[in-house]
Amino acid sequence: SFFSKRFRQVWWDVENCQVPKGCDAHKIALNIKSGVEKMKYCGPVTIYAYGDINQMTSSVQQALSSTGVSVTHVPPGVKDGSDKKILVDMLLWAMQNRAPANMMLISGDGDYSYVLHRLRMLGYNVLLVRPENVSCFLIAAADTIWLWRSIVAGASAAEIPKQADTRKRMKSDLVVKSKSRKILCETCNVTCISLVDYNSHLSSKKHQKKVKLCLFSGLLELT
User: Fold this and answer.
1) Does any domain span residue 58?
2) Where is the U1-type domain (predicted)?
3) At residue 50, what are phi and psi to the nearest 5 degrees?
4) Residues near 132 by beta carbon (within 8 Å), at least 6 away in sequence
5) Domain range for residue 44?
6) Who has the most CB within 10 Å: 113, 153, 203, 206?
């Protein structure tokens, strides 16, 4: 339907997906919007970037501002500062925009895995732009994935992965990687011995309560 193809929001974790030196931040922001358009989504694309503005050059700040990107300052020294702000804003957005709705996260931080997984299960279409090496569980939480370097370079329509192929590939990667090591839930500091054990833990009341407490503490820190 028209509603299901309308694009809504982009959250950009600048700490995890930085503007490479020598690259034009203005062009990258346009590439993000162009990538959405190439996937046949319609409507305005709202981009929110999160990071320490003191670590951004004035040219980068001006370039982002000129393309309509809203930059939220995250002070240095705040543990998981960007993560908490993005998670809070993401959940507030979800409360105001019922599924089906489309959203994009630009990050490689595995801490977003659980929230993205829950949103996808609720009917939200989750697009993920990621760096090279990230948690396989973050990848598995998204419907469609492509690399940050592709966005930086200006991905063509042919480079954008199709949803079915993405899910099939991620399922295969997840099985292979989960056999080789134990899985740590950093939120609860619990080590799971298998993928089944990990998924069971994510669905547990203990984990969900811990996530809510972390998000609530994040809200308090941001006020």
Assistant:
1) yes
2) 180-214
3) -125, 130
4) 147, 149
5) 3-178
6) 113
